[in-house]
Amino acid sequence: MKAIEIKPQIYWIGAIDWAVRDFHGYITPNGTTYNNYLIVDEEITLVDTVKYEFAEIGLSNLRNIIEPSKVKNLIVNHIENDHMGALALFMEQMPNATVYITKRGRQGLERFFDVSRWRIKEVKTGDELKIGKYTLQFIETPMLHWPDSMMTYVKEAKLLISQDAFGQHMASTARFDDDFVENASYAELEDAVIDYYANILMPFGKLIRSKIKQIQDLGIEIDMIAPDHGIIWRREPEKVIQMYLDMAEGKTNLRVTVVYDTMWHSTEIMTQPIMQGIKDEGVDCKVIKLRATPMSVAIKEFWKSRGILVGSPTLNNEVFPSVAEFIIHLRGLRPSSRIAGAFGSYGWGGGAVKWLYQEFKNMKLEIFEPGIQTQYRPTTDEMRKCYEFGREFAKKVKEYHQQFQ
Ligand code: FEO
Fold first, then answer.
1. Domain 4-248 has CATH 3.60.15.10
2. pLDDT tens per residue, range 390-404
3. Which of 383, 380, 378 is nearest to 266 (CA)?
4. Would you list the domain boundaries of the chain?
């Protein structure tokens, strides 16, 4: 793979993973990339490595520019396996390298590798490393999204190497945001940003706001953002920062996502008049059937809407398993600033709708009650009630949405 010079003497040397579809349970229909960066300065410096399976590609990309033994500094921004899985293999080829990492990163690294013969230096926010004409400044970003996480800012290049933040799971021959503008597919890129944020960063909105403010307070000028996945932001880095701030502040679309599953189609039948009712109130509506949709897509679609309606049949007095799985994913992501309601069908005992409302309450979502249930098959009259339920929910969504304007 040809290295790409992103700034004078700073190269993207990452690997493109066209094939990955299951990224630790997060479905990636467009693959991903493992970006890492080489700075050819007086002290040759490598920022991050790649996933273990891509070690040969990563090392070959490095050798295309320089002999690995010449690498003096290795910055490890994040110890998740997709970025440091190949670290030990790289270190074998880079005997002269010193690893720069946060304290918590070092503790984690010691759990993954025998580091007894490695030179390791711990760094913290504000620490600098002068490598020649360039100066690296380290910015810890704990819990964004692991305890060890940090970013590396190349001062003279105004380049923020941001690790997972601002990244996207998108395998592409394009390397920069302006490639997408030229291809008129910028919306696809933005959707990939939302997808990544929703599935990985949703729990950390407050942290994201305070970290962006801290970076702004440090007076850091950003001309380019180079994340560890996907596209590099050089045309409009401020745009992706604003997207993050908006998402962290709860901004989203005046829209409803209906997420459901079904056994004998009764819950599915209910979604039709509900959806129509929402639409007739002038609110856009997206419908997701869980077993037909990857979980990460369902989570993204949830995040793109102010309102969420979850439909489930009752199975053995419990919520339907695929719906429970969705709720467990959602619970872990600690959603906020969304309004939720539930509907479903049952044969005799019921229980799914009640279970869903309890979960919404535990998650501290805004609640729309009561939900709507039908026994066995919705009657014509119940279908009308489902339509009204959809209309009333959409009215509440519009009302609730106002406070975020
Ligand atoms: Fe891309 Fe958190 O690893």
1. yes
2. 999 999 999 999 999
3. 378
4. 4-248, 256-400
